[in-house]
Task: structure prediction
Amino acid sequence: MATGPFVFKSVATLARATSFFADSARTLQTAIERAPSSSIYFHLHFALFRRHFTTSEFLNDFAQWTRTTLADEALAELLAAVDPLELTSLRQARERLVATLGEYVGRMAFTPSVSFKQRFCFQEAESFIYPTGASADGLAAFAREMRAAPAESVFYHFVVAPLLEKKGDNDFSIWLEAQGHGEAAARVRRLSPYSTDLYALGDRIGDLLQ
Result:
């Protein structure tokens, strides 16, 4: 059983342009195959965080562009159904997106394209991780700090750390499990940041632990 405190961290993300773009479903598939992993992360996973500042109903940028620019509702729904939490690595995420697009494009007699100004321009993420200054050495303190944690911190521990650091689980559940709170860890693990407002997720975890 671990006795160390939980150290809350956060993440700042900068976007950078890449040389990859798409003007149709077919070229979107090709670009996803070749774009850097940090680009897949930016448009699929980090899109979750940016979604809380927009009115988009879609969870990722690929689905959003496919619907609004290509006007392909069916493909947009398929891309929106790709759940990042089911994928334990960026490689799996890329493969799932490519497979989804490949199967769909394979059934099309032709693939409509859009103009230069309407194309999807791939960006990539550069992430900077830093401690927030908050920590917790027990369950009560952890629940209290969860309620006060900023959305960026919740996003880091629930989404970024498991993916980029290849932990296989969110930091909250890992720490709770190590502290001997297996049931609490399982309850937190069942929460999804893709169906819950990140600004409310910290409060929900705090309520579960209390």
The chain has two domains: 6-11+132-209, 12-125. The radius of gyration is 19 Å.
